[in-house]
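Follow-up to my post from last week.
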Amino acid sequence: MLNLFLKIFKTPKNIISVNTAEREQTEIIAVGEKIQKKIKHLFNGSLAIRQIDAGSDNACEQELVALSNSFYDIERFGIHFVASPRHADMLLITGPVTRNMAKAVKIAYEATPNPKIIVAVGDDAINSGIFKNSYAVLDGVNSIIPVNYQIPGDPPTPKIILFSLLNILETLGACHSKTIIC
Amino acid sequence: MLEIITSQISFLILLSLFFIGAIGSLFFKKNDALSNAWSNFFAITGSLLGLIFSIFLIIKEKTLSFTFNQYSFSFFTPSFNIDMLSAFFIFIISLITLFCSIYGSSYIKHFYKKYSIGALGFFYNLFIIGMLLVVSASNGLFFLIAWEIMSIASYFLVVYDRNDKNNIKAGFLYLVMTYVGTAFIILSFLLLYKYTKSFDFAVIKSGIALIPLSVKNAIFIFSLIGFGTKAGIIPFHIWLPVAHPSAPSHVSALMSGVMIKTGIYMIIRLSLDMLQPIPLWWGLTILIIGSVSTLLGVLHALTEHDIKKLLACHSIENIGIILLGIGSSMIFYSLNMPSLALLGLIAALFHTLNHAIFKSLLFLSAGSVINEMHTRNMEKYGGLIKYMPQTAIFFLIGSMAISALPPFNGFFSEWLTFQTLFQGIMQFDPSLQWIFIIAAGSLTFTGGLALACFVKAFGSIFLARPRSANITHVKESSLSMRISMGVLALLSILFGIFSGYTTILLEKIGKNFTIFQNTPSFISTNYYKNLSIGSNFASVSTPALFILLIFAIFLVIFTFRYIINKNQKIKINDTWNCGTQLTPRMEITATGFARSIILIFKGILKPSIQHEIEYHDAESRYLPKSRTITLSVGNMYHSYFYQPLHTIINGLSLRIKNIQSGNINTYISYIFIALIIALFTVL
Amino acid sequence: MSILIWIIQLIFVPVVSPLCVGIIRKIKAKLQNRQGANILQPYKDLWKLLHKDEIISKDASWIFQYAPFIIFAVTIVVGASIPLFSSFLNNTLTSDILVIIYMLSIGTFFLALAGMDTGGGFGGFGSSREMTISALAEGGLIFSLLTVAIASNTTNLFTISNANIFTSGQSFLPIILAFSGFFIVLLAETARFPFDNPATHLELTMVHEAMILEYSGKKLALMEWASSNKLLIFIALGSNLFFPLGIAQSANINAIIFGIFAFIIKIFIFCLVIALLESSMAKFRFFRLPDLLIVSFILNIMAICLIH
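User reply:
Got it. Predicted complex:
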């Protein structure tokens, strides 16, 4: 037991630091209607994300799981993952929406209270990527629910996802807080 | 004026009002509505008179005693002795009868054209007369006659709904258990007669020194079994969960709220009034029986999904709590601590009153629900809060009161019982301390388990979506039913707020006992109606709790609804169920709710799970069509107590049967032997 | 002057309780070699939730809509009745042991009903598990507080912490035993390891979180806030009844400031211990939890027997 705690202090700090220049290189694609001004200050210091797997091949999920480890540590920016769409501000949808998951994604969208942001992560979610024209999938998340932002990549690396999320927050006016490095 | 109200004329008028109600109801039995109105009208006026009579008797601290010597012959004299304890019980009887009769006037309407309403009115009023006579009788034989009237009238009420075979069986079990109890009571009265040469309670009390200790112990055991069977202590309680559900709901409320308290009345009367001085082990026995009853009663209640059976099992638990108060009172008095003994008695009496109020409230609301849904099974309810909103609120208040949540009345009587037990833990050295620790431990677990049980009950009945299709014709209960439930709920809150006043009155009642005549008081109330125990050992302010809680709730609602973010929009949508289809079968069932606790206590409850699967294709048995899982609990009283008793008695009677051999030569030899023995003893 | 003290006493628990949750999360993050969110993050979460819209299920009744208010109000009333930084305040109205335990039970009652109200599968079994744990934990809770009550001959909380039995020397062992019993119940009632994982996403492992899955917006904020209030209430009871060192015993301004500092240090120690415990053990299987609660009950009984 003691060895466990001593090991904590001996492990070097390896967290990825976020500086503005690198972050601004990552582009985000905004689609759909613009988010209103009203919520520009709302997600200032805290964002709750609910992740929905709409039939994906788990590549994006693995990258999303990596966001919570000690390298990327998304929690230091006030962003955390929640279990229920009722608690969520942002829905992060991965995977081409298969026919079986279409209704479930719609129900989850309606179960999320306003104001909310919908982000499609990965090429599959944007335009069904490598599964395009299959009989089992619909044409990306935008065909079911209105998407606000897209993060391209197959799958996007955790660094890109992290920087994209921070850019989204900055677009929403989060530059006033100390947690997001501007 | 006051003199007339508290005189014997008034008590006789009280009895005769109920009597006229009984006879008249039978007389008009051809006309359902008339006999219903007649019997309930006289019951209501009788109970109002009873309320006034008992309240004035208690306030004036008067004892009423009178006998009718002209009607007496040999040992039987109709003599009454209504002291403050009897007046208190008359108060409880009248209070609950008032509300049950108001409720009954519309509830009985669904028995019209099915059974005889005249008979119902007759037995109902006779039942109440029986109870009133039981708590005021002062002669042993007269008491037994009143006891019989009460038991037989309630038997006919239990089997009233005779189309259901289970009710007949329940009535039979009730009759057998009552008669076993009555046999023990008769035995103890006969023993008392043998040594004091009289059946009169006052004569027995003054001549108690004539009884040797071993006989006194036997009297105690017999009367505990006898009155305990009526009160419903473990293990003589098996009739309670079957008989109380079978009766009509307003009668169930009376039986569960008041009739079982007559057993408590006689236990108090015998052990704290008539048979004093008593040895220490009597109090210890009652304390142990109380602890066992509370815990096993509430565990049994958790396994039930018949709503009235659940409420009847909670009666067993609350009788256990009352016995905790009585038992600790007896122990303290035997060890020369009369102030603490008075505290225990006050706690027991207060809990008697509170239990009568909230148990009848719960039974009446359960009756309304059963009336609309036509089934007693909780698994078929659900979603009733939208169809019967006021009944739901009354049931919620009853649940909060029985789970001892402040600021309702159940909390304060449990608080007093706890304080009695805490005093026991503090004052005694470890040889006696352990029994109080066990009692306090069982009381704490009971509180938590009762809360769990009522979350299950309220949640399964009223919340979530309806589980059966015949919900559409459910409507709110009628006005008189709602009035009776509403006033009972209001009384529950009021007795909670004014616990200080009630405790002072109960202390006066306690000090009326001969043994407590000059004891210094351990409870005090001050300017803010603070109720304090000892010299600053514990204190609680009953009105302040209520005011603070209500104020805090309103403050929070006002701040968060109307000040912060008042432009918030609220949308109505479906329940989140992980994106799957939402059916009523997604909700938790009553059995499922209690499953965890049942499995934790599986040593006591002995659950067994049966799993039946029906397949689409019976031969290949691959795709199931439906599954039924039944969780049942073993009946341990039956297997460990009644079944061995049954085997022994059967075996004994089989052996004795051999005397009746049917051979006439054997019979002639019996006569010969008996003649020789008689000649020898005479000569 | 005393009005000021009472105002601080009233608002202390709601204002400081999100900080406790923040401290626990930060220490856990540091132990996982991460940087973790800011200590003041729970305040930002609450602020954001208070300004969001709500979605309410159509199966819900008034119990679902009013339960958060009732639960929060109960925690405020209890928070004002317990000794936080001063033990000289005189509250004979509501500061009794049994009164605060049963008032917290009101909160549990309405929380469980709200979980069952919407008819979702998760809320139902969350309520069932919560009521099972709460029913068994109540024995340990009452008896651990009873031990200190018997040792100081009163059940009024302020008087117990004023009596300062910890330093009087003769009841050292009973206090340690009763405190270990109390600590187990603290973990049970505030939904910490090994009873419940407050950060889990798997509904089958949830106990407390399952009942609030349907809440959103302001009501969710109130539920989370009430839950952290409850954590602070239990920490306050544990630190001020069993180890009342540094608590203000007179109305002196220096004593009060010292009392507030001492209380914040005690909160920090408790949060550190809870975070260390959460980082080094796994959540127990549900049917092993009654064993733990009965252990707590027995520790308290031993403590009572050892007092004389």
